[in-house]
Amino acid sequence: MMDWTDRHCRFFHRQISRQALLYTEMVTAPALVRGGAVHLLDHSREEHPVALQLGGSDPSELAEAARMGAEAGYDEINLNVGCPSDRVQSGTFGAVLMKTPALVADCVAAMKAVVAVPVTVKCRIGVDDQDPETVLPDFIQRIADAGCDYLIIHARKAWLQGLSPKENRDIPPLDYDLVLRMAARFPDMPMSINGGIETLDAAEALIARGLHGAMIGRAAYHRPWDILSEVDARLFGVQPICRSREDVIDAMRPYIEMHLDEGGKLHQITRHMLGLFAGQPGARTWRRVLSEKANRRGAGVALLDEALEQMRQPDAMTG
Predict the structure, then answer these.
(1) Dihedral in degrees, nearest 10, Cα atoms 192, 198, 201, 203
(2) CB–CB of 78/143 below 8 Å?
(3) Burial class (CB in 10 A: 0-12, 13-18, 19+), 53
(4) Which residues are catalytic?
(5) pLDDT digits (tens, 9 = 90+) for 13-69
(6) Which site among 23, 56, 121, 293 is 20 to 30 Å from 192 CA-CA?
């Protein structure tokens, strides 16, 4: 979710679910440790629980980045061993690391040695011509021995040559049964599943089959209300604070005002809110108004009211 789940996105999603664990976009350890890009750790206390997702392959560098993340207040440090993008491969980050499980274990052990918060891993079931039935158990055993606290498995292979990152999200077939077998084989390693989960019903069904959780990415981004609004009640037994999409908008107003007062731009926040009314009458108008006008000079929270008003016009409701 690089360039998607930034701090504004996470604050917005937190208004819909207070309990779901949110993840940052991937932050590379070299950017933090060598590049001094500590602003990438910025987040607000309202985002918790929130995990910092790191990319990297140098154990000492990842340990330092993990220490920085823990000191910044993150609730979990997650190592990404699943992203197949070209720019990640070129830095020996992400899914290419599944070819060197011993190195991943060294990275996990180094991070565990310097932080008290959980250290977790997100991976694929394998890459390229690897046999997942063989490589995945070995990978899990190695990171478990290194102290990994939790594992999230994207239930697809990553093809590092021949498929684009977008194609890697859709073309390799899903193998949920393999992940379920791994959960049964490694009962002491809590596991979540990721990949192709489009509804909360589907997530609950997978959890009921023996998993500790389910990670939903793009569906939650594009249809945040549909996915997140029932999470607190159905999975955690607590009532959400915002009972409607309009409540979410009202909850965002002070945050937006503060961001604008600090010199920020409206579109930096509203670009994450485009899917709030997905599937509802007038959703297209909501998206159009925010997309066209949030970039304009002087755009402020009044644009939210304009978008709401326009989407409720009879022609918008039926268009």
Answers:
(1) 0
(2) no
(3) buried
(4) 83
(5) 999 999 999 999 999 999 999 999 999 999 999 999 999 999 999 999 999 999 999
(6) 56
